[in-house]
Backbone:
């Protein structure tokens, strides 16, 4: 087993080393913004929106200040009324559900599948009521929810679909053997985050909405700009949510490398899989047949109750790890008013006790992966 002292320190996400590889292009792009001092809605923002739309194969990209805002303005654009129901996953980051409550809507939670960690389509179908207006599938950890089935349910009931693709920018959903779409471009609106740790991340906060609907795009652009299309003329209540020009400049450079970033993550995941698959206590990530996986997180399930002990051993060995998520939404105090005491989420509860995310980023080296997997294998000997 390699010594940790002989290699670069292992990090959960290594943004600094990635920056050093792209430093020349990123610095040039940032300095162009600094030289022009056009920090708000500069040319780079429009250029990045067009570049990302072309990459995703979608008509419109509307950037905003962060991924949470992307979710919120998407719901604001749909003409919803207080008390309308929005269905989403119980096993997700809080932002997905937080925006529903902030807008006076009713969050309706459904359990997830034990293999993909994504929305259980059967549970979704049972949760539909006459008040359901929106479904928010979350493409968790880098692979897609079952969008064919979700879209079928939505069309039957005339319900909007807003995709939370914050962890899956660049991944594909395979509608059939010949037709695929980028995640985030299938529903009425898609949302993403450019938080620095994301596969496509900037050097601060940032987010975006995607849509193929011209009318929705116009409304979204208005909402992120104080409800205005013409300066000082406000057609609706909006918010102030803009992507900084400097962040757009960084993202424009990084977008050119996104496929390489995702491939590097996939290669690291393949090594993890080959080394960990034989450990019966550890279930490696499952990849559904209808989606690609870009491994925003490499998340295993530790099935014998030893997760926290394993995590402590990893930490003592200089290996970081994370638990996404230690408390499902239904166990968060902030949402207790919406949770009926007779509703249970057994898969979410199980996952919260089993999931463990190992280091995953574009700069993992073979010696890092050798060391991490050796520590895990020795733990279970």
Residues:
């Amino acid at each position: 087993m390699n010594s940790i002292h002989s290699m670069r320190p292992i990090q959960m996400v290594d943004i600094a080393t990635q920056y050093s590889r792209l430093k020349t292009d990123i610095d040039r792009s940032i300095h162009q913004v600094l030289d022009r001092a056009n920090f708000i809605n500069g040319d780079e923002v429009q250029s990045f929106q067009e570049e990302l739309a072309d990459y995703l194969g979608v008509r419109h990209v509307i950037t905003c200040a962060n991924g949470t805002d992307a979710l919120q303005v998407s719901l604001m654009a749909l003409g919803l009324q207080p008390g309308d129901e929005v269905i989403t996953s119980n096993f997700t980051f809080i932002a997905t559900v937080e925006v529903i409550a902030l807008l006076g809507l009713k969050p309706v939670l459904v359990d997830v599948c034990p293999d993909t960690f994504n929305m259980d389509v059967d549970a979704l179908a049972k949760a539909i009521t006459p008040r359901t207006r929106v479904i928010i599938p979350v493409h968790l950890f880098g692979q897609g929810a079952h969008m064919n089935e979700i879209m079928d349910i939505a069309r039957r009931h005339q319900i909007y679909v807003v995709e939370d693709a914050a962890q899956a920018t660049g991944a594909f959903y395979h509608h059939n053997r010949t037709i695929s779409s980028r995640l985030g471009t299938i529903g009425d609106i898609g949302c993403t985050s450019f938080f620095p740790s994301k596969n496509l991340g900037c050097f601060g906060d940032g987010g975006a909405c995607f849509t193929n609907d011209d009318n929705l795009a116009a409304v979204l652009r208005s909402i992120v700009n104080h409800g205005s299309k013409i300066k000082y003329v406000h057609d609706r209540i909006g918010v102030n949510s803009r992507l900084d020009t400097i962040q757009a400049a960084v993202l424009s450079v990084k977008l050119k490398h996104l496929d390489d970033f995702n491939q590097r993550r996939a290669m690291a995941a393949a090594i993890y899989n080959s080394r960990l698959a034989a450990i019966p206590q550890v279930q490696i990530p499952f990849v559904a047949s209808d989606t690609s996986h870009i491994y925003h997180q490499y998340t295993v399930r530790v099935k014998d109750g030893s997760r926290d002990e394993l995590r402590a051993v990893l930490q003592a060995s200089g290996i970081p790890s994370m638990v996404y998520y230690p408390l499902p939404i239904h166990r968060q105090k902030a949402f207790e008013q919406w949770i009926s005491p007779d509703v249970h989420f057994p898969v979410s509860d199980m996952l919260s006790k089993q999931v463990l995310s190992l280091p995953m980023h574009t700069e993992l080296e073979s010696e890092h992966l050798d060391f991490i997997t050796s520590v895990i294998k020795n733990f279970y000997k």
Notes: The two ends are 14 Å apart (CA to CA).
